[in-house]
Amino acid sequence: MKKDSAAPTTESTDREFYLAAANALGRAAILGMGLQLAWVAILASFDSDWVISLHSRVMGIEISEALFAQAMYLGLLGLKLFVLVAFVIPWLAIRWMLWRRN
To answer: What pTM value is reported for the model?
Structure first.
């Protein structure tokens, strides 16, 4: 029997793998950025005094407005750095490598 199509080459399967990885990383980066936007939107939509008192009750300590704002900024910074390092930079590296191979 004659085969209609040739077996896929290693290079084509590698390219498909890297394209799938880049797509997954890109979607994860978009979800991470969406999480940051949701975080900011939730903080902006609620009364800050209520949110601070809620966190104070949950943590069992009195939190000042300045400390709460600092914690929120540091949390957003940490999330932003994580998304950048874990998803955006690898996505850029893979896309650049695929672009250079063409």
So the answer is: 0.81
